[in-house]
Amino acid sequence: MTNTLDHLPADLNRHRVLSAAEAAAFLNLSLPHFRRLYRSGAVPPPIRLSERRLGWRVGDLIVWIEARQSRPVAA
Question: Which residues of the chain have pLDDT under 50?
């Protein structure tokens, strides 16, 4: 059985919404560290999915990663 999302255009993947755990895994961070970054405002702001549920768009996370890659590394 195939996933129905497999037939969608590739650019729609950037609009996919991830949970905090999925976003942390996407960024290769632990969930506690991702939550610390969220509380300090260091990661992109989430979107509110419901009263108690937040999500992060894949596209926003990709842009955040690309912006961090362009910064020089301090020695």
Answer: 1
